[in-house]
Amino acid sequence: MFPKKYRLTKKEDFDRIYKNSYTYNLNYFRVSILKNNLDKNRFCVVVSKKVSQLATDRNRIKRRLRYTLFSNQAIFPTNIDLLIMVTNRNILNTNSADLQAEFLFLSKKLKNRS
Question: Which fold has domain 4-113?
């Protein structure tokens, strides 16, 4: 799990991201990205009940995504807020290599955008 300084926690942060961010739709999730004025990246993973009614499944998805983010945080450019909204319920059946490939694809898109 990320330390609190690397997480998005405040309502103002979420409102700012929803209003001003760039959004990328990937196979399993939608990512909203916004530059921040901090010297670090901040992350958040959101899984709605539309993906799974079971809290255990939603928590499992969040744990897997946070672990993949944490182990690959060096591939992302610095000073960004990243909000990940899971949109595809098939994410429960994917392996970690597929998730890692999604984040690698996203990081390449971000580097091309910069």
Answer: Ribosomal Protein S5; domain 2 (3.30.230)
